[in-house]
Amino acid sequence: MADITAIILTKNEEVNIRKCILSIKPIVKRIIVVDSGSTDKTVDVARELGADVMVNVMSPFLYAKQFLYAMENGNIQTKWVFRIDADEELTEKSAAEIDKLCNDNEDTDVNGIVVRFEVNFMGRAIRHGGVYPLRKLLVFKYGKGNIEDRCMDEHCVLFEGRSVEVLYDSLHHDDKGLGAWIDKHNGYSSREMQDYFNSVSSASSTGLDAVHSLDAKAKFKRFLRWKIYYKLPAGFRAWAYYIYRCYIRLGFLDGREGRIFCFMQAYWYRYLVDAKIFEAEKQR
User: Fold this and answer.
1) How far apart are CA 196 and CA 143, in angstroms?
2) CATH class of segment(s) 4-173
3) What are 199-258's pLDDT values in tens digits?
């Protein structure tokens, strides 16, 4: 077992939290669940499985600020911190690999670990459309990294040292269904809209002034978002995003689920962001 504290942020994750905790429990010394006022059995399940539960009601739910709350108030005493979402879970192979990497690099300049995910949508693994594998720097040495304080698209970043990427996939699988996906992305769209206006008022809010702390893939994706995507006309960019995901990156090869995924990401979520930006500009 590696010297790891896992942090899971929750709000009404009763459906997902059990499989998440059980998947990480063999390799972590401590699990902290920070709950934002769940009305289901999330807290009960987490405590039943041995997690330390902290309740910090936050509205709207801002992931970065809640994670920073856990880092500041969780009394973390382990070498490593592992950020993981309730709808994510490790496999036996990915868990064993993370465990080994943490143990082998306690005294090296490797201060972060990038975890790979296979995204599941409507019961189907999404392998095309530029989604697979979803890579995120989620494990870092305490004091050597943290999370960006942003409304949306927050990344864990390293202050020093380097990161390595795992070989085996973990799973990103939300069992709450399409309705919950829509509700979640409605919230995401409001946060993305806020990030957009922050970027207009202050160039630093895009995070482009601090990309040196991001890994290479995260740097490139952020550059595309702020320097290319948002330079395109509103509305048109959602269409272009759909064409890119579904046809150029072959999202249609994932069957009907893949086509729905591309459509919802572009014509629902991305277009909704543009609509909220338009609404806010009108109100101003």
Assistant:
1) 30
2) alpha beta
3) 777 654 444 444 446 777 778 888 888 889 999 999 899 999 999 999 999 999 999 999
Maximum Cα–Cα distance across the chain = 55
Beta strands in the chain (DSSP E): 4-10, 30-35, 52-55, 80-83, 88-89, 110-121, 124-126, 134-141, 145-147, 156-158, 162-173
85-108 in b/e form (b: 16+ CB < 10 A) is: bbbbbbeeebbebbbebbeebeee
**How large is the average pLDDT for residues 176-201?**
91
Q: Which residues pair with 112 in a beta bridge?
A: 140, 163
**pTM for the predicted model, two decimal places:** 0.91
- Burial class of residue 146 in the structure, from the number of CB atoms within 10 Å of its CB (0-12 exposed, 13-18 middle, 19+ buried): buried
Report pLDDT digits (tens) over 9-43.
Answer: 999 999 999 999 999 999 999 999 999 999 999 99
Q: Output the pLDDT for position 213.
A: 60
Structure tokens at 199: 């970027």
Single-letter residue type at 126: I
Report yes or no: 134 and 151 within 8 Å, Cβ to Cβ: no
Element (H, E) at 131: none
Name the token pair of 202.
């202050």
Q: Where in the chain is the domain with CATH 3.90.550.10?
A: 4-173
Q: Give residue for tokens 């994750």.
A: 13
Between β-strands 110-121 and 124-126, what pairing exists: parallel, antiparallel or unpaired?
antiparallel
Please give the backbone phi and psi of residue 29, each rounded to the nearest 5 degrees, phi first: -85, -30
Question: For residue 278, which amino acid is it?
Answer: F
3-state helix, strand and coil shares in percent for the chain, rounded to the nearest 5? 50, 25, 30
